Amino acid sequence: MSELSSAAEMLGALSVSSRLxxxxxxxxxxxxxxxxxxxxxxxxxxxxxxxxxxDAVRLKEVGLVSxxxxxxxxxxxxxxxxxxxxxxxxxxTGLLTEDPDLERFFKHxxxxxxxxxxxxxxxxxxxxxxxxxADRHLSESEVNDLLGxxxxxxxxxxxxxxxxxxxxxxxxxxYQRVT
Length: 179
Prior knowledge:
- This protein is α+β, with helices and mostly antiparallel strands and 179 residues long.
- It is built from nine helices and seven strands, in the order ααααββααββαβααββ.
- The chain is elongated.
């Protein structure tokens, strides 16, 4: 199974609140050194141990817990692996490999801070411009959708790209990347 499909399986398993509660309880009890037996965890979350077995087995299948006898152990490190697998599919991730100095301004494919340093700002803007196809005109809505994948203030990013002449704007809503 690929890392991306494993990440999807893991997220699917965690989409059931009883499993998420179970995982959180095991991880918390484990970090405190408390009893992580099935019966102790069940008592902590207010469930019958027998009703929890199916959820525990599902979490084991996706690698989030291990079960030795009646003892549960959480492994949250697999969540980082899942996040990395998802990150690898994001459009900006491949571009960042070409200019790794810019990685500090991004987290999980999202721009977290626009650099104040003009050189870094220019480089980030160049990277963002590459998210737009160069071979066609785009509507403002299309530009917003593409830039919105990396930052919630897509209007500010759109203005930055126009101001830096990385994108041209004709009329009020016809954009094209400058190549």
